[in-house]
Amino acid sequence: MRSTLIAASALTAATLALVGCSADTADKGDAQASGDKAWPESITISLVPSVEGEDLAEALDPLTGYLSENLGIEVNGVVANDYAATVEALGADQAQVIISDAGSLYHAMQQFDADLILRDVRFGATSYASVAYTNNPDKYCDDEPVMGTYAASGIELSFCNGIEEEGAELTGQGAASIDALKKITPDTKVALQAATSPAGYQYPVVAMRDLGMNTDKDFTQVPVEGNNNAVLAVYNGDAEVSFGYWDARTTVTEEAPDVAEKVVAFAYTEMIPNGGVAASKDLPSDLVEQLTKLMDDYADSSDEAASVMFDLVGLSDWTSETAEDEISRYGEILEQFAN
Asked: Is 277 left (phi over 0), alpha (psi -120 to 50) or beta?
């Protein structure tokens, strides 16, 4: 999925050269002595990498090497089959730290009292909205669609109902113009993704239910797979409305170069949280504090580290501003679809 990682040995050397002098053995000993618990000799991080291939363990080496060097203990990385498996590993003490999605973080916090220590940052944001798209702006827009620039790719996209400022860089901040969803009529075809999709199903359905709509009867559901197909369903006229992450239109510009004209965004849901990092409640608090700072600083420690992070887990950064309330709200929404 991502480009091949630069050789792990070279990256490890480059990273350690930058950070090796940050803490000496005496400092680490003092830190451990002042903690409320003795530090373990090793800890394990469980994650689901974005990188494909057979060398996943090698791909983890730059990050785990960086943490091992600076913490003064062995840090191992283990690859999980899926996000739920990271939570299982934490609960079984097979991993003490997990890098996972928002839903799994919520379950880790609820089931095992894990500490949320970091949130994922993608292109400067820790959360994103689900976007309501339409090919019928006369029906759903109270004003003429305007254009704005999606900064991550420089693509211009169309919006209405004042959810973005004309000519400006897009923000993707919700909730915005949610009441426009009430304009969906019983004869409307609405493309929805799988019920496990936050942006393509869960958050839009909750938004419509909160408006008093019956999502089983008030329109015709058109099932689609993936955010790109949600956009294309509206683009091709297979549905009048669809939902996808902000902004999924950028994924189809090659096959649908005029998507900005044909597919207009008219509403945003409330914000959906990115994933992040959680630590076991059994780890010493001073170890968690140092681990949090090191991981928060990792992407900025070198150009190579930033590349590894993007290739490994598809992120541009981590932040210690966890906005735990967003994770809790996500958990509330997940529970509505638990059955």
From this structure: beta
The one-character DSSP state at 202 is: I
Q: Which residue has the tokens 């096959």?
A: 255
- Supply the angle between the helices 324-336 and 203-210 in degrees, to the nearest 10: 80
Taking only the tens place, the pLDDT of each residue in 68-123 is 999 999 999 998 888 899 999 999 999 999 999 999 999 999 999 999 999 999 87
Flag whether pLDDT at 50 surpasses 70: no
CATH fold for domain 8-123+274-336: D-Maltodextrin-Binding Protein; domain 2 (3.40.190)
Taking the C-alpha atoms of residue 153 and residue 260, their distance in angstroms, rounded to an integer, is: 14
d(Cα 104, Cα 83) in Å, to the nearest integer? 6
Q: Where are the domains of the chain?
A: 8-123+274-336, 127-273
CATH class of 127-273: alpha beta
| pLDDT tens track for 116-134 | 999 999 878 899 999 999 9
